[in-house]
Amino acid sequence: xxxxxIRAVRKSYGKNPTLHGIDLAFASGEFVVILGPSGxxxxxxLRMIAGLEEITSGEIAINGKVVNRLEPRERGCAMVFxxxxxxxxxxxxxxxxxxxxxAGVPKAERxxxxxxxxxxxxxxxxxxxxxxxxxxxxxxxxxxxxxxxREPNVFLFDEPLSNLxxxxxVTMRAEIRKLHQRLSATSIFVTHDxxxxxxxxxxxVVMNKGVVEQVGQPLDIYHRPASIFVASFIGSPAMNLFDAxxxxxNACLTFGGTKxxxxxxxxxxxxxxxxxxxxxxxxxxxxxxxxxxxxxxIEELGSGRVIHSELNGxxxxxxxxxxxxxRPGDRVTLELPLAHLHLFDQETGRRIEIDxxxxxxxxxxxxxxxxxx
Length: 373
Known about the structure:
Rossmann fold, 2 domains, six-stranded antiparallel β-sheet, 26% helix
């Protein structure tokens, strides 16, 4: 196992900056997921940890030792790529043990470690097969076994499940997590899939345009996103975001033809301005009074339904149970509970750190009700 420290790391290709001063710390044995859209710099950062990309400035330390000038083989890392990159002419055993063969490990020892590693990833019955005779999931297991057999301090995963179908990805996520628990090595997993990130991570790092937007445990990030970007990127369906105006005199938020009465001290603290308000689809409640939306279309999920509409010119979704009667063209009234609202500054995009829940609990029901303007 190994702890990893990333200090003021920058990366530029010519005059084009890719990473803008990354500062991160990963504890020994953690499973860290770096999440972000394509082009945000997550794979570049991973490759810099592995030594496959040079660092423009800053430093990376593994177990307290700065590794900027070390060759990849000297860093104690093993990497699993999106493309399996298996040798097609070799058997599964040959692929798994190739690094040991190159390192001059005696044959008897090599075969023993190949068998042990194959057992860990469930490939004991496939050692004599060639990659062409394997499924996608089995090939990915071979790639992981090839990394495991090196007994590294750090596992690096660069979107390893992207080429698999949806069902197999679910299976492989579970296997990777069990593998981590068994080996207890520090693992860094890069993905653009927020479901993978939420289900795998001990620590989640959300990146956007070469900077770190937020670091924390998955549920903490889900419930308290630090920015509009994080709020919109984490969650399926995505968080609803819409513009609202703070009316200090009347102590309310106004949006979409409705108003929400809030605590007067809160209104004064916010000040008269426009803000972005967010609420998760599953936290909207069908109620007699509230925001009236026109149903555009409905997603049937079996266990529930997702109603899609618009609010204040922005897409709006609400998760309701399967018994909610609604069809495209109907109007549905939704309560947006004050305790579940997220507020963001429109200029900076950052979260406004005001805890609405305690006030919501103290306020009377009338103060939490949406009313027609």
